[in-house]
Specification:
Number of helices: 5
Strand content: 5-15%
Distance between the termini: 39 Å
Shape: globular
Number of strands: 5
Number of domains: 2
CATH architecture of the largest domain: Orthogonal Bundle
Amino acid sequence: MQFTVNGASVEASADIRTSLLDLLREHLHLTGTKKGCNQGACGACTVLVDGVRINSCLALAVQYEGREITTIEGVGTPEAPHPLQAAFIEHDGFQCGYCTPGQICSALGAAAEWQRGVPSAVTADLREDRIRIDHDELRERMSGNLCRCGAYNGIVDAIRETLIVESAA
């Protein structure tokens, strides 16, 4: 199978029943994406495929052959973190850090959805040209990502400061 992972062309061979999560972690050794519940309920395995967020534990790798996959390793570097990564640190948006890669990938996907005008379950007015991101709207968009440590306030603050402000400009 051939993929573009974090901007690099990658070939991998794996059983056709291999999940995208297992391909990333076990075959490509990209361990930033975490295996939490392995049932699509926690969001720890969230990655971006062609800019759209997915739960990689629920996806067969073969379904995404030829597509562009971005994991947390492709978002920033220790020397040059993505602004959202820096905001997570500044706002204490993580404690143990286990869910953080999925939270960050999900937030990037959510911001892209918002920019495209995709409504959420709590979007108040579907006729607006620009969806207003208030506290409830942001929390709804991130509701598929759980944090067992309870760092939600810092996560929301980091996303609001970084992605929503950037997107509104």
